[in-house]
Amino acid sequence: MAKKTRTPHRIRQIEESTTRRVAIYLRRSTDEDNQPYSLEAQETKLRAFVESQPGDWQIVKIYSDDASGATTDRKDLQNMLRAARAGLFDTLLVYRVDRFSRRLRDLVSLLDELTDADVVFRSATEPFDTSTPIGRMLVQMLGVFAEFEREVIIDRVITGMERKAAKGLWNGGSTPYGYTLDPATHNYVVVEAEAATVRRIFNLYTKDRLGTRAIATVLNDRGLRTKRGKPWSQRSVETVINNRQYLGEKNFRDITATDAHTAIITAEQFKYAQHILTKRSEDIGQRAANASDYTLTGKIPCPQCGSKYIGTVAHGRNNRYRYYMCWSRNRYGAKKGCDIHRFNADELETAIGQALLDFYTTGHDVIDQAISDFLNTYAQATSSHHDELASVTRQLRDNAAAVDRYLMAFERGTLDDGDPEIQARLAKLKIHSKQLRTRRAQEVVATLRVMIDRWVCAASGVSVVVRGTGRDLGGAGPG
Fold it and tell me: 0.85 exceeded by the pTM?
């Protein structure tokens, strides 16, 4: 007697079942306002498609995203995949394949996830069903065309933007301080009140030779604010000084359009400002190269606002003075930022250095206790992670053995692979195995981190000899 060929259970279920739990996925790109793929239109057509199908098709959930199809980092797409893995629906329905994804690699990956979750992928406007091999092949071919269409759209958009850039028109993005956008001409129009501030910034920088921090203080003292209504800072002033749009230029990729709009700054003054900025940056870089100048930078929290103290310098007639100042006060000034006092850098470094020396020469009991606590914590943490890892490994082994028993029973013909209880049990074992593998990976990483922390502490001086005492403060080496 010839052996009967068995139809895969999932395909047989799709063919024989008259009831489907359907989830609908909708997507509209942020640049598709004028295209016929609004979320409402897609939902209307998909509901009509479901009602036209023979049998009992039930819509159990609708997912929708306003996002690009070039990425899978979409909120409702990820929610849909989690629901699919949980077995909440049988069929995923979309209006077109490109509503699901516009990249072939992402499409194949998403279809694999749906297949693993026993979910059929359907399109209302394209003739395929992924419950069959030819349907899976067809959907991948449609994915190729969707990705090609996306690339064509990108090329057309970039070409259009390049044409606009060559004409000196606005191509999107924020409008710089000193200008506003004329929606009729798609070009910048000077805002005289802001333009006066831009000219004042360049004059203070090139004629009065004030620094960017001092200029920010001057602007804030006069009650002026940036385009976003925030106080001026060193960075926002420097952004103005570096912006070539104040020369009337617009730049897009390799295209530079001159005289694209009314200039606020002359080319000579802008060039001179860049010369000063470059010279001062070189001086700062030379000072910053000496790491010993401000050893406490970033290590002292401000007791008033919580920002870190940073090293600053002031120049008198004949001397150079070093200070540690709150970052907020340094950036925004004492009136707009933090008004806490600054510290003389030499005095502060001397005081802290003396305190550290006193601690390491007299605080032996405190150091010994800290090392002892660290070693105890390390031992407990390592033991806990090893025990958990062993437990997870045992559970994984038991799960694998259970799955093997089911498979052997299927091969012997003693169990029916179409039994819903057996299918549910296998699905539960599969999910549990994935969870256990994740836990095992987490425990391995946690154990390695503890070992690395132990090694780093030992290598960087947990085991040290206090200068002048010859006393070993304990602690074994790495390993």
Answer: no
